[in-house]
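Quick one: structure tokens for this chain, please?
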Amino acid sequence: MSDVTVFSYGDYYYYICAIIDLFSRKVVAYHISKHNSTQLVKTTMKRAITSRKPSPGLIFHTDNGSNFCSKTFENYLKENEVVHSFSRSGTPHDNAVAESFFSSLKQEELYRRKINSEAELYRIIENYINFYNSERLHSVNHYKSPDEYEEEYYKK
């Protein structure tokens, strides 16, 4: 599952794309850009494919944003044998996991800090995602972090 959110700092808007594994709620890839573009989502997807090496037929869910619907992105998914699933129009709950992650990132971290530089913004986001994956407990994971939940699954 994936989505894009925006955060303003200084004179710029920063667009954050994250890809989340619905099984464990782990953020498997993310990318930050000053442009909400097809390149943003494609770069994030490349990172996810590189790190996870999914089997053909992986289902990838997004909203109907123009960057996710672009021909370039659709072709990239087809080349990698990824099946694209879309939210129903006017139904934000279809993408609730991604929306919830971005809400947590902003409420628990970004809105609570005085950010002094672009480099610091990037570092804060990276640190939060590392915390989210390795320490933040999720009720859907029986109160285990995404990393713990995956580790327990693969041990079985």
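Strands lie at 2-9, 12-21, 26-33, 58-62, 82-86.
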